[in-house]
Structures are given as C-alpha cells and as structure tokens.
Design goal:
By secondary structure, this protein is mainly alpha-helical. The protein has one domain. The protein is built from 9 helices and no strands. Helix 3 packs antiparallel against helix 6 and helix 4 runs antiparallel to helix 5.
C-alpha cells in the first residue's frame, strides 16, 4: 500500500459531509418538518457522495489499475476515493442513529457492512481496491436519479398539496431511475461480482489478501446486491400496480 495518501483525508471528508448535512437541516430545508428535514439532508449528502463516487472511481481505476485488477496494490488516488466514501457512510450512519424511521435499521446494517469492506481494503490489506471501486461506481451511477426520487418524496410529505412540481418530477424520474438501477444492480454488478469471485476462488490473491477477508467481502457484496434486487423488484411491482391498477382484476 502506498501509505501517504493522507491520514487526514477521512476526518476531513467526514467533516465536509457533516457540514453539508447541517447546512441542509438548518438552512436549505429549515421550513420543513423535523423528520422530512433530516431525510432531505441525508439526500443532500448522498447527492454529494453519489455524483462524486460515480466519477472518481472510474478515474482511479483507469489511471491506476494495472494488470492485476482484483488484487493490485491500492494507489493514493484509490485510497482517497475509499476515504471519501467511508466518510459519507460514517456521516449517514449518524443520521440513521438519530432517526426512527421504518427501515433505517436495514440501511444502517448496509452502511456498516460497506464500511467493513472499505476499511479492510484501505487499512488492513491495502490491496484490491480496483474491483471494489468498480462496484462502487456501478452502485452510485444511479445516485442522481435515486436522490431526486427520494428528495421529491420528502418534499411531497413536507409541503403536501403545495408540492405539485415535486410530484411531477418524481413521476418523471421514476422509470429512468428504476431502469438504470435494474441494469446496474441486476446485470452489470453481478457480472463484476462473478469475475471477482472467480478470481479469488482460483487462489490468485491468497498471497496478498487473506482468504477470510475476500470471503467476507464476497458475502457482504452478494448480500447487498440481493437486497438491492429485491428492493427494485418491489418498486417495479408498485410502479405497474399504480399505473395499471385494474390489470390484475377479473372482469365479470
């Protein structure tokens, strides 16, 4: 591992995300209810992370990944991306810890699992960032649409009948968000996971990444993709039920 990539990057990025969160809570969304303010502020830091994480990992991969894609030594630019994303998940964990919304426990478990992968890659083994960053880029490729979709829902709750624009925007982004999410999480992501698993199972990385580490990575990644596929499946079902409510009813 090329160490120097600044010990201070992680706390610095964490401070940035926390400041953006509080800016959203106390300034941008100050007229919303406390519950929707916190949700919208979480979307705000997710926007910052997601749009950046969709661009930074491919740059780090293209510029720094050598011939050994899944077990190469982490480079400074890759370490910076890992620190940046880890800082986001730490910041959002604080938001989830203060929230009592349904489903937050699942999101918190997801964040902890992702942090385990990032931090072991970053600090424990110092290898294998390329494959992890490729999955990160795919996961965040839909971030702009997803956060617009989530933010418009929060706006609709906060503003009620005063948010027709939010509801129209939500309906406009629904289909492209669901479609791109399905492709990234249901097709491209599993392809990368399959290649990663095949590489590790072959034993090609055993001399640089302990077996228990890469096995735990694969378990976490497969579980995360499985939950994502189930989640988007349920959204598609709701999408078609909302638009074609009578399609499943029998006619007499």
């Amino acid at each position: 591992m090329e160490a120097s990539s600044s010990f201070w990057d992680l706390p610095f990025f964490f401070s940035v995300f926390v400041l953006v969160y509080f800016a959203g809570y106390f300034i941008v969304f100050r007229n919303w209810s406390p519950e929707t303010r916190s949700e919208a502020s979480s979307c705000l830091i997710s926007f910052l992370h997601g749009t950046s994480a969709a661009v930074l990992p491919p740059r780090a991969i293209v510029s720094d990944c050598g011939g050994v894609f899944f077990s190469g030594c982490n480079t400074p630019s890759q370490i910076t991306v890992l620190d940046f994303s880890s800082a986001y998940f730490f910041a959002d964990l604080l938001h989830l810890a203060a929230s009592s919304a349904a489903g937050d426990a699942l999101f918190a478990a997801h964040h902890v699992a992702v942090l385990f992968v990032f931090l072991t890659c970053r600090f424990l083994v110092g290898q294998g960032a390329c494959g992890i960053l490729a999955l990160l880029a795919l996961a965040e490729a839909t971030s702009a649409c997803q956060n617009t979709w989530a933010l418009t829902a929060a706006a609709a709750v906060a503003r009620g009948t005063d948010a027709p624009l939010a509801m129209r925007l939500r309906r406009r982004v629904e289909f492209p968000f669901y479609a791109t999410y399905s492709v990234c999480r249901g097709v491209l992501g599993p392809v990368v996971v399959y290649k990663m698993t095949s590489f590790y199972v072959s034993g090609a990385a055993d001399d640089v990444i302990p077996r228990w580490v890469w096995v735990s990575w694969i378990v976490v990644i497969v579980a995360a993709h499985s939950v994502s596929i189930l989640w988007i499946r349920n959204l598609w079902i709701q999408f078609f039920n909302d638009r074609y409510p009578t399609s499943g009813k029998k006619t007499n």
